[in-house]
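[INFO] parsing input record for Fpg/Nei family DNA glycosylase
[DEBUG] input buffer:
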Amino acid sequence: MPELPEVEGLALDLAGRLKDRAVARVDLAAFSALKTFDPPLSALNGLMVDGVGRHGKFLDFDVSGLHLVVHLARAGWIRWKDEVPATPPRPSNKSPLAARVVLDDDSGLDITEAGTKKSLAIYLVRDPQDVPGVARLGPDPLDDAFTIDVLSAILQKAGRAQVKGVLREQGTIAGIGNAYSDELLHAAKISPFAPASGIEGDRLQTLYDAIRTVLGDAVERSRGLAAADLKGEKKSNMAVHGRTGLPCPVCGDVVREVSFADSSLQYCATCQTGGKPLADRRMSKLLK
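[DEBUG] output buffer:
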């Protein structure tokens, strides 16, 4: 799933490509992806793109005051096309194409979603806050307003909830998903199942520093990359996420995994849990 650094990278790349370009039309290929009806997509025809931004994991195309907001969900992506087909795409359940934005010189971008589970969402609104998911977002962890005191208040309010889940909750902190929550906790040497309210003092400072550093470094690595290169950049710089069975780059211990119904987490027992493997939550009580 694209998370804060990749979505920021996409926004930076697309902002450079789309600035002061006119939208010729938007072709919708997956009708279920469009979540709004007023204004219609045809309202974008002939309007200029003023910029591309980000709200958490949401991409925001500012088109002369209208906002085309896209949530890429688990398997969505943006693919730049130097030349798009002249014929609009036909709706198809088998095609990964959800929508195509055609520009005034026949270049454009495809909004795609792989797999059969379709969760990608497209909104056309007058204000990004009209998108329910954007309106519910918590603070952005790279914003100057996200201080250590803000993080402390979030963790204390969460009580004994597991810290990994707290970091992933978009209404609590915007933009962190499964992959980067693994990475942040590994960098901070904290168990993913540690109770949030127990993270205080030096551990709180370490977690705060990890959030700012890991995410900030990932954004900087993404800066200047084309959309096609962002996924590879993310994967190649993961310390534990997606690296089950490989050595931890910090201590050399094997990276372990806990599986859930529709996801998994990765961690290093030596770095994060005092050498104790975490139990599978489906089978036994979690270790802290």
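[INFO] Confidence is low (pLDDT under 50) at residues 282-288.
[INFO] shutting down worker
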